[in-house]
Amino acid sequence: MRPLGVGLIYLEELESLFRESNPALSVLELEPESFWQKTLPEGPKGRVKFIPNAGAMARIAALPQHKLVHSVGFPVGGSVTYPDHEWEPLDATIRMLGASWVSEHLSFNAIETGNALEQVGFLLPPRQTTAGVNTAVRGIRRVASQLSAPFAFETGVNYLRPGAEEIPDGEFFASIAEAADCGILLDLHNLWANERNGRQPVTGVIDTLPLDRVWEIHLAGGMTLGEYYLDAHSDTIPQPLLEIASTVIPRLPNLGAVVFEIMPGYVSHVGLDGVREQIALLNILWRLRPVQSLQVERQPVSLARDSSEASDVVEWERVLGTLAVGHRSDSLSGAADRLAKDGGVAIWRTLIDEGRDGRIARAMRFTMTLLLRHLGSASVQQLLRDYHASTFPDLFTSVEGDRFADYLRGRLTTLPSVPFLPEVLQFEHALIRAALYGARSQIEWDVDPTDLLSAIEEGGAVSPTRIPPFRMEVVPEG
Amino acid sequence: MSGFTHLALPQDPVPIRVNIYVTRDIAFNLDKMFQVTRNVLGRLGCEGCHSGRVLDFRIMENFVVNAKTLEVNELPGAVRF
């Protein structure tokens, strides 16, 4: 793959770094779904659509770096396949940015439950068997055929202990890359986290991979939760990982980019100067790559279809997904028994719950502030636990907010009284519904809403001025 | 909506624009309404790639609650960034 250089995942918090004409920063990698809004039909019919922010895409396209697209919403490691039309905005982004290649995760994020397809709110690891290889290869082939840039999958994080029936990590990645004839996004932080959490050592994985297929490396920092090390993208790159990268990069003849990943909430912790230091370190690593690229001729690999193997993958995903979101699994399979005892599942449950609560806090800032101030942490946490148990998550903040708003409306009569909760809930839900469904809403007020919201924001006692009733209408544009 | 007060609320990064109409002038604080809607509409997109912790609720919790006195407290051990 064409050598592009060192890059960052694009965040608005890092926009100034992309604009400061730093020759050491030559790659911008975009997670496009962060700039999309999911829209749903109000009734049972109709289909999910994703609307990209055209203005933001044009602004990002004009930045001087080479562009890569790193999708986070349509993982290719699982049995669930997304409708073709859902790929259209992703491909439009690839074309608009002129992306050199596109990557997705070798994971799954949805399960079949009865007749429904439900999100699990996280990227979970695929079934690591021959059937899992076949499932992933079919998924990659299908996706790659619909996108207008070369495709690579990301080597994922996995908090599970390795199972006796599983293919080792490196062999699993290698089999998929060869059969799907695609690139590899080698996420060394993921592999390092896997090693620290008891899975195959990084060196063993690297020794097994077809290294000429590695187009890109991801590096990041993490944090611990209990005894687990998390791929949290929360810090600078740890020194031992830099040392591993320095031994791996000279072995990658077709490396095209080395990218540092950080989550928006941790940019202030690392600081912009800290991110600049990471860019400088990655440039030192970048210069270690081989001078010459390598082309390897290969024969196409065919896959055998086996419906019983496929059903094993579906069942395994259903059990892991169900347990990870904290719902009861009625499966009696051996895998279910093993997964139920695996500490990694409890880690995902914590992370998924925190992710859901975080999305609700962002979507319903004033509602949640009111609840916390008047009911206290313990009661609100119990309310959230009840909500988690009764619904599935969604990675889009709008959908999670809408579900929680519906749930909370149903609980208003059984909760202790919270001043102005119905009004604030109705207002925030109206904004979410405008975005998610394109729905108009009317809200009756007999207090000044700005007075009320200011009081909540400033943390004072909530005693807004009573005024003659008036009506507010929230109307989505277009 | 002639005779109504109207606020147009552009949002970024999520591409949804929302208009708010009110039936009469209530000395609306435009800045506050922009702030509120930005807090909601500007954050309705998809989360990025990671397998770690999302602490927005914990942070809110640490800075908000005292259910008895309604005072804003910074709780011991609050997460700092």
Give an overview in words:
The complex is a heterodimer of chains A (478) and B (81). Chain A is an alpha/beta fold. Chain A has 2 domains: 5-286, Divalent-metal-dependent TIM barrel enzymes (TIM Barrel, Alpha-Beta Barrel); 364-474, no CATH class. Chain A contains 18 helices and 16 strands. Chain A has an 8-stranded parallel β-barrel with strand order 1-2-5-6-9-10-11-14, surrounded by 4 helices. The radius of gyration of chain A is 24 Å and the shape is globular. The model of chain A has no long low-confidence stretch (mean pLDDT 93). Chain B has helices at 30-41, 56-64; strands spanning 5-9, 18-22. Helices cover 26% and strands 12% of the residues of chain B. Chain B is α+β, with helices and mostly antiparallel strands and 81 residues long. Chain B is elongated. Chain B has 2 helices and 2 strands. Mean pLDDT of chain B is 70; it is low at 74-81. Chain B has one domain (5-64). In chain B, strand 1 and strand 2 form a beta hairpin. The interface between A and B is large, with 95 and 56 residues.
List the helices and strands and how they pair.
The complex is a heterodimer of chains A (478) and B (81).
Chain A: E1 5-9, H1 15-19, E2 27-30, E3 36-39, E4 49-52, H2 54-61, E5 66-70, H3 88-97, E6 102-105, E7 108-113, E8 116-124, H4 130-146, E9 151-154, H5 169-180, E10 183-187, H6 188-196, H7 202-208, E11 214-219, E12 223-225, E13 228-230, H8 239-248, E14 257-260, H9 267-270, H10 272-286, H11 307-324, H12 334-341, H13 343-363, H14 365-375, H15 377-390, H16 397-411, H17 421-437, E15 441-447, H18 449-458, E16 466-476
Parallel strand pairs in A: 1-2, 1-14, 2-5, 5-6, 6-9, 9-10, 10-11, 11-14
Antiparallel strand pairs in A: 3-4, 7-8, 12-13, 15-16
Chain B: E1 5-9, E2 18-22, H1 30-41, H2 56-64
Antiparallel strand pairs in B: 1-2
